[in-house]
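To the team - pyridoxal-5'-phosphate complex, inputs and output below.
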Amino acid sequence: MSMLKEGRPTTPVPVKEAHMAPQTATGNRALMLEEALIFEIGSTDTTGVDFAAAPQVVSRLGSLARTDSIGLPGLSEQETVRHYTRLSRQNYAIDLGLFPLGSCTMKHNPRLNEKVARMPGFADIHPLQPQSTVQGALAVIHELAAWLVTLTGMHSVAMSPKAGAHGELCGLLAIRAALEARGDARSVVLVPESAHGTNPATAAFCGYKVEDIPATAEGRVDLEALKARLGPDVAAVMITNPNTCGLFERDMKTISDAVHAAGAFVYCDGANFNAIVGRVRPGDLGVDAMHINLHKTFSTPHGGGGPGSGPVVLSEALTPFAPLPFVEKQGDSFALVEEETAEDHHAQTFGRMVAFHGQMGMFTRALTYILSHGADGLRQVANDAVLNANYILRSLDDVLDAPFGGSGPCMHEALFSDKGLAEGFTTLDIAKGLIDEGFHPMTMYFPLVVHGAMLVEPTETESKAALDQFILALRSLAERAKAGDEALKGAPYHAPRRRLDETLAARKPILTWTDPALAIAAE
Ligand SMILES: *Cc1c(COP(=O)(O)O)cnc(C)c1O
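Output:
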């Protein structure tokens, strides 16, 4: 029996190439199954359960009680399990293979983290429980906070922000509060050209005017251009270090000193902390605020845009403005402080980022990761991440252009450009080819300072064998793109879908499902 109903576009883009096998009757390709939407599989007339008719109860909703069916599809348990299992198989995951996205630090999520996070004492508690009953959880937050402060050499940490971008917002709100407290509201935030898109977005969201700082031919912040732009209207400079070209900003301390001399603050985007954890303390470089993506450096799951966590470490100057609430050790016990205190901590807090204290499940996982590595292990993480990225850079720089390859080793990610590909071949062709080779594509067309950028971050958790296989795939694709192999332009051939119209998908996404029968009736 086919589960597919008429009216649904189940036919993949026709395959013209002669070497491709003919279309199957189901549209399936071996174990690559076509899967309909749940509304198309199930019907409101059927139900997967077999309850005796519910006893008639008097509805207390009165006239508010719903009389129409809400139209949810009924499915058996097996149909439901198959539906979601099939969908999950159409997704790429770090548990399936190397995930080379640059800047994203897609590293293995150790199962030990999961085991600890699922312990009932952590998993079954509620943020509104009396504090005396969640002392262990507060101790976890306190200990993780202490590690983050120590590893970064900063003064304090705000634990509640829920992602890197949310952490950027927290940092800029603290900076704005600090400037306003001294009666010096400023209007401009400087952001280097190579910055992650969230940096200018955050600054604009906070009401600042965003101005670009150019990069040097070496891929680093142009120090002279930055110094020349500093002035009494500049509130902050947002710098990613290591930067998104995979390079360490060697002038960071000089930059910070100049920014401070001009009365502004230094925000560091710490998404790339994985490259330097245990080796460099941003506090020593004059940073005032930096977010740490627990879902990057500290191995908590990325979760499809789900439960991230972006604690923000703060300098002494910004600490009084940190958000509420925060965990404090009071004698032998821990307290979640919900109001301003007279202490340096939060004396002039800008308010709250979120209702509660942050992502408890991520704190548990991150602390497990930190404790299972120890300080020396974390330093080894950074060393191995950098080693793996350099192995990729040097294994491919004979077939792919490495724009900053001449300026020495990279940090945690290897950057290539589309220079030297045959006429008409692009980074997109290589990315799509990688899908056929069984890999998620690398980050592409970012950073913007490099034409047709390909940014590869292997992370330290990949074995040499896994790196070699990825290198083999990328090398073969680079050679095909240089030789002008037209077949590459049709990739991917082996994915559930072929090339999509990505512009249309981004500009005019269709996010709701309409019953085709109703759609026809409406016409
Ligand atoms: C991932 C990332 C961010 C944003 O972090 P999210 O947790 O995804 O919000 C910001 N900057 C850089 C450089 C990043 O790689």
